[in-house]
């Protein structure tokens, strides 16, 4: 199928319009698959733990592996698409995602499940970046924002139904089906891609910075495994320390490597932009705290309060609904008060709503719990929107693609590290209070964990406080409105 003309002066005939609509649906379905699987697992973790003979409080590796695999491959997604073709890579990503899903369903141990989640995450890492690239190269420039707004809708729907669908499948069938449902969707998506995705025109190939990529990937993996090793992997303290040192050394080595290379993966010149610098660092540390909530809340409800998987999944609906309701009021608030004031205040509110879960108990009124969940969803949504738009708003057009990839990588890395850190803190408090599965001591461990992760989030407000007045001003641009809302 030929590429659709990109010149605004060339009118599109009905067949080309239909081709554009089919392309949008293909990319939207891929994005939906990726975001759905990022959230559908959380409510099924206790059932998985029971089936695999593990403690439900040590299942964070299943979530960490997926996020970390995505963070690893995102920096290479653009080069892979240019080298092998966007359609070929997109089909390969769907098939890899499906294979990973089948392997997850077949897993008979936690180690096998974690390995399968890595395969699934590698496929998921390519779905959105490559899909966005196809839309960018196919759609007329004046219609790109509208196209990306359509593609972004599944990114909101996936987290909305993921926890509920996961809990229902666990009760109606078994946890294996949260992965097996990807099989028919993925196969149909691959066939539709081969049939309807256009072949964008060839682009100039650039040399891939393999050495820089390996340094960056190893640094991310080593730091994440060190955090996860504090609880989930059972690594001794010496091994954790060695992993952390190697990880930090690898990241420093990448920075020095990028300074002397003319075409690095991510140019250090990007960090001369104050809003991007503060936005990325703030994203990392803010998400270290808040990204653990979709992991901790379903566990709290099922392990200490007696909720069924389906009930725990339904309880996540107020978070998603409140998140979607905040989209319209976030931009006017930023335009009126500026990024600095909004982010400093809202980061404190995110921390306070997280800390409120330290008061949770089985005797807590249901209405109060629903209000807590809705309040967290609202302020967390505002936080994501403000952080993401701040990061990209001042980038020049030539640096927008690189900055967007860097932001996506930091988001996924922070999500994985946040869950790993929460798992380590929960394991430490479980050992401190004593192991009484489902009892008062386990509840105390959860309450203390919520308090600690809330403090991490509040501490990140100091990063946003460093925003210069000029960087704090809101700017309405296409980049500010189509930023990925990875959660």
From TrEMBL:
Primary localization class, coarse: membrane
Subcellular location: Cell membrane
GO cellular component term of the entry, any: plasma membrane
Positions of the Major facilitator superfamily (MFS) profile domain: 23-472
Entry-linked SUPFAM superfamilies: MFS general substrate transporter
Membrane topology label: Multi-pass membrane protein
Residues annotated as transmembrane: 23-45, 57-77, 89-108, 114-135, 147-169, 175-194, 206-226, 238-257, 278-301, 307-326, 338-360, 366-386, 406-428, 448-468
Gene3D superfamilies listed in its UniProt record: MFS general substrate transporter like domains (1.20.1250.20), Multidrug resistance protein D (1.20.1720.10)
Domain of life of the organism encoding this protein: Bacteria
NCBIfam families recorded: efflux_EmrB, PRK10504.1
Record-given protein name: MFS transporter
